[in-house]
Amino acid sequence: MVLSSGGIIRNTKFLGRQYLPKVMGKHQQLHFAGHHFHMMFDASPKVQNDIYTLLKSDPRMVRIMVVNRAKM
């Protein structure tokens, strides 16, 4: 999605399987641990919103966070 819209993926890291700080419920299931990953990318605000919406609807994702870090 990022690449097809002309954005740039700067870095991806898989941080491994880690225990969550607290038990989280999502999609009628309780989650105690999860696979964590980190992806840095540059894309337009619309693409960022589309990625957030897509990941939020994925039942495999427990928590999603998209941070806008604009350069000054």
From TrEMBL:
<dbReference type="Pfam" id="PF01250">
    <property type="entry name" value="Ribosomal_S6"/>
</dbReference>
<protein>
    <recommendedName>
        <fullName>Ribosomal protein S6</fullName>
    </recommendedName>
</protein>
<dbReference type="InterPro" id="IPR035980">
    <property type="entry name" value="Ribosomal_bS6_sf"/>
</dbReference>
<comment type="similarity">
    <text>Belongs to the bacterial ribosomal protein bS6 family.</text>
</comment>
<dbReference type="InterPro" id="IPR000529">
    <property type="entry name" value="Ribosomal_bS6"/>
</dbReference>
<dbReference type="InterPro" id="IPR014717">
    <property type="entry name" value="Transl_elong_EF1B/ribsomal_bS6"/>
</dbReference>
